[in-house]
Amino acid sequence: MSNEELTKNVNKEILHLIRKTKVDALYAMKSHYNAAERLKRYTFWLGSSVVVLTVVVGSSIFATVSKSPSTNWRIGAGLLVLASGVLSALQTFLRFSESSALHKTAGDNFRVIFKKSQEIEHTYLGETITKEEASKNISGLRDQADIFSRQSLAPSNADYRKTRAGIADKEAEYTQKELSET
C-alpha cells in the first residue's frame, strides 16, 4: 500500500515505526539463519576432518603393528595424531554446533517479531485497531526484539552482508515489496 492510499486516520510516524520494526526483524532473522548455516558447515568440515584423520591414523597403526615402521612413517603418523587431536580440541572448544543452534533459535524469534509486525501493519492499515493500540503493540514488540537481541549471539559482519546481498538479489520476493514500503 502506498503512502497516497493511506487514510487520514493512519499516523505516518506509527506506520514508519511498524515498518522499521518489520525490516529490522527481517534483517536480524536472515542474519541469524545465515550464521546458523555457516556454523553448520564449519561443524561438518571440522568433524569430517577429525574422523578422516583418526581413521587414517588408526589404519596406519593397525597395518604396522607387526612391522617395525621407518622413522619417517612414525613421524608422519605422529603428526597425523597431533593434527587429529588439535582439530578434535578445536571442535570441542569452538562449539560450532551449539552456536549454530543458538543462531537458529534467534532467527526463529526474530521471525515471530517479523510476522507480528506484519499483522500489526495490516490491522492498522485496515483500521481494525486504533493508533493507540498499534503504538502499544509495536512498542511491546520492539521491547521483545531488544530482549532477543541482548540474549542472542551476534551474527558476523559477513552474515549481515550476505543478508543484504540476498535481499538485494530478491532472495525472497516478498522482501522487496516489504522494503519498498518503508
Describe the structure in your own words.
- The chain has six helices and no strands.
- With 182 residues, it is an all-alpha fold.
- The chain has one domain.
- Helix 1 runs parallel beside helix 4 and helix 3 packs antiparallel against helix 4.
- The N and C termini lie close together (10 Å).
Question: Which H/E pattern describes the elements?
Answer: HHHHHH
- Derived from helix and strand composition plus strand pairing, the structural class reads mainly alpha
From the alpha carbons, calculate the radius of gyration and give it in angstroms.
25 Å
Low-confidence stretches: 1-6
C-alpha end-to-end distance: 10 Å
- Helix % is over 70%
Shape by Cα distribution: rod-shaped
Q: What is the average per-residue confidence, as pLDDT, rounded to a whole number?
A: 85
User: Which percent band covers the strand fraction?
Assistant: under 5%
* Number of helices, where a helix is a run of at least 4 consecutive DSSP H or I residues: 6
Number of domains: 1
Counted beta strands: 0
Instruction: Describe the main β-sheet briefly.
Output: none
Compact description:
By secondary structure, the protein is mainly alpha-helical. It has 6 helices and no strands.
Q: Topology, pairings included?
A:
Elements: H1 12-63, H2 71-94, H3 96-125, H4 131-151, H5 157-168, H6 173-180
Helix pairs in contact: 1-2, 1-3, 1-4, 1-5, 3-4
